[in-house]
Amino acid sequence: MSYIAIDIGATNIRVATGDYTGLIEKVMEPTETREGPMGVSRQIIRLIDSIKEEDPTNIGIGSIGPINLELGTITNTPNYSFHNIPIKEPLIEEYKVPVTMVNDCAAAVVGEQYFGAGSGLRNLVYVTISTGLGGGAIVDDNLLLGKEGNAVEVGHFTLDPESEIVCGCGCRGHWEGFCSGSNIPKYASYLLRGTDWSGGVLHMLTGGSMDKLDAKVIFEAARKGDKYAKMIVEELGYKNAIGFANIVNAYDPELITVGGSIALNNPDQVLKPIIENIEKHTINTIPEIKITPLGHDSVILGALALALNF
Ligand SMILES: [Zn+2]
């Protein structure tokens, strides 16, 4: 038996072989975005062929969304200039095997249950705080998928409809619009507007340019005690706490694990304000909230678990 796991990200595509013990061989490349809608599946086939020892028996995929579960396509991702990218059909045509495709965070929560901190649990949520912000949920041991496969788009929970911060999706006051890696610079500039933030570490790291504000410098300056960076991290933490509270109210999980580069690179600064503030906004019992032990492998391990369990 030969199992293939695929993680289609906005930046990178990762393909791996694996078995019940985990990943065996992995390859990664920047995601092909210039060769038209078929370029992505061609790239995946080339990567599979570069590592497979024998013909695949099952393929599992966790993909950036939004996706169309039934058609096995990525429908409308802002990272591409084209829409409706076929993924599942070209792979079935090439290898004549079952292909299971879900969105990346749905895959990640499966990975968490199968290989990570959620082992034995029937109710868990995975949240990624990365370039984007998303979630996957298993409720009563069922993976939530939704009519098209985009059931747990927690990043687009509205936290403040009056806010002047507009999310990448075009809506006002979405959680992702404040707290994802691609949006933190805009929100940070907004928070600093009208303040004199000169003289501190944040000003030094950015040379005083708002254009140089990003998650990395903000969290670093906050660790070094810069009061404006600390204020931004605190605001992000407060928004995250509301987002996590909404998750607890919606899905009533026993465990929430957190991944994505912003959380993995700044674990204490991300988790502490969530744990401190979540109670103010929840009706349900607060679950355990912790960083995923799977690091950057949550999605691809989930894709592997989907391939193993088809
Ligand atoms: Zn949004």
Could you characterize what this model shows?
By secondary structure, the chain is an alpha/beta fold. It contains eleven helices and 13 strands. The chain has helices at residues 39-51, 88-95, 104-115, 175-179, 184-192, 201-206, 215-223, 227-251, 261-265, 267-277, 298-308, and strands at 3-8, 12-19, 22-30, 58-63, 67-68, 73-74, 85-86, 99-103, 124-129, 133-139, 142-143, 255-259, 288-291. α3 (104-115) packs across α11 and α7 (215-223) packs across α8 (227-251). Bound molecules: zinc ion. Zinc ion (ZN) binds at residues 156, 167, 169, 171, 174, 176-177.
Keywords:
single chain, 310 residues, alpha/beta, Nucleotidyltransferase, domain 5, 5-stranded mixed beta sheet, 13 strands, 37% helix, globular, binds zinc ion
